[in-house]
Specification:
Length: 430
């Protein structure tokens, strides 16, 4: 099954990479610049201009949907004027550490040696990031005792989702999100019995995945909420209220939950300090910042569900089958989260898992908004893709909800997953 998921992920990525005629509107222009520079420069700095590779690619290919169309005149020039490029030719990828770009660049080299174009080689690595995510989710489910067919079918839904399409067929830092979600899901379940190694690894992973992309803190938040709920649930048998409170406060899972959030935030703060020290100019202005108003925190609580299943843009942007893939994925993530929470047959620990995922979806939006306001002084309307790391968590809840003891359930789950994945191969640049 693991080999099958690897093949499914790579086929999915290769199918769409071969069809992409233009750059992704989700910042691939600046991501490809970082990808091209990382081995030579290490870090892209605030205020730095994009390089020749990214500029030529954008000029020759254009940017999908609403971006600049191909510019044949600029395509033939060595370095056209910055006014034709997004952000006046400045990079905005300086907000990221080089971690994702360095891994992607190194992993792309074998594809380059095999004759794949430089940009497409980096895009194909998205299939490896996707494979790592679905395989890790599969391992998490199998360790929990989920039947192989149910675990595999559920992972096929993830491998064929719209978040996978936008994040894993272009060069995108969002490629780390599904992996972060799957990893935190696995570690949270391994830590449910207060075992030391999973708790330590969960805290370490919180820092690592935040350094890949700060939005991955959404998955860290879900894992932290789960550990807090577990500690409170197990403390209920300690006796008096004071004894229960003491048992909860002294629970190692509570300590790990707090540590994970603190470590994740601290790692991001450290990177922002490094970024500021390396700056060579002003921050690239996207022109989307707004004055902060408290009411935004309420609306941001509902930005991820169910829209996170759409990935980056409206489902119809991915062609006539985009809406079908979206609806089927929504059925899984909403049905998984809500269904597992309410199912009488579910174990208490599993219901808390679903509750943590749903609370993560509700709380991550306002938390990310506040973080952006604190670090930039402006409010930015959150796109649903910022919650992408929560998708594996909810897909995992769906798999736990299915009664894998029956042959019918196993066949139905595999068939459903195969349907979503097959339809995803029909997605296209509409």
């Amino acid at each position: 099954m693991v080999v099958g998921l690897l093949v499914a992920s790579m086929v999915f990525s290769a199918r769409h990479v071969s069809e992409h005629a233009s750059m992704s509107p989700i910042d691939e222009f600046v991501y490809s610049d970082y990808y091209a520079k990382v081995l030579d420069h290490g870090v892209v700095r605030q205020g730095e201009k994009t390089g020749l590779f990214a500029r030529r690619t954008m000029s020759c290919d254009g940017i999908r949907v609403a971006g600049p169309p191909p510019n044949q005149k600029a395509c033939g020039q060595r370095n056209a004027g910055g006014e034709i490029y997004p952000l006046g030719g400045l990079t905005s990828a300086d907000i990221y550490t080089p971690a994702y770009f360095l891994i992607t660049r190194v992993a792309a080299q074998p594809f380059v040696w095999a004759g794949v174009g430089f940009l497409d080689a980096g895009r194909l690595v998205g299939g490896l990031w996707l494979a790592a995510a679905v395989i890790l989710l599969y391992v998490a489910l199998r360790r929990r005792g989920v039947a192989p067919a149910v675990a595999g079918g559920s992972c096929l839904v993830l491998a064929g989702s719209l978040p996978a399409y936008w994040a894993h067929t272009y060069i995108s830092t969002d490629a780390t999100a599904l992996l972060a979600g799957a990893a935190m899901f696995l570690l949270a379940m391994e830590a449910r019995r207060s075992r030391t190694l999973p708790l330590v690894l969960l805290v370490v992973a919180a820092g690592v995945f935040t350094l890949f992309k700060v939005q991955n803190l959404a998955a860290v938040a879900a894992a932290a909420i789960y550990l807090v709920l577990l500690a409170a649930y197990d403390a209920r048998s300690a006796g008096s209220f004071a004894a229960r409170l003491r048992a909860w406060l002294l629970d190692r899972r509570l300590l790990a939950a707090v540590s994970a959030v603190v470590v994740g935030v601290a790692c991001q703060a450290a990177w922002l300090a490094v970024r500021a020290a390396l700056a060579v100019g002003e921050v690239a202005d996207h022109g989307v910042g707004l004055p902060f108003e408290p009411r935004y925190l309420f609306t941001d609580a509902f930005v991820f569900l169910p829209n996170v299943a759409a990935g980056a843009l409206a489902p119809a942007v991915a062609g006539p089958y985009g809406d079908s893939v979206y609806v089927l994925t929504v059925m899984v993530i909403i049905g998984g989260g809500v269904g597992l929470l309410l199912a009488r047959s579910s174990e208490a620990y599993d219901r808390l898992l679903a509750l943590a995922g749903l609370l993560g979806c509700l709380l991550a939006g306002p938390a990310l908004s506040l973080a952006i306001v604190v670090t930039t002084g402006q409010y930015v309307s959150l796109p649903p893709r910022y919650g992408m790391s929560l998708v594996p968590w909810l897909v995992g809840c769906f798999a736990l909800l299915v009664d894998g003891r029956t042959r019918t359930a196993q066949v139905a789950t595999v068939a459903f997953g195969a349907l979503v994945w097959s339809l995803s191969l029909l997605l296209a640049e509409a």
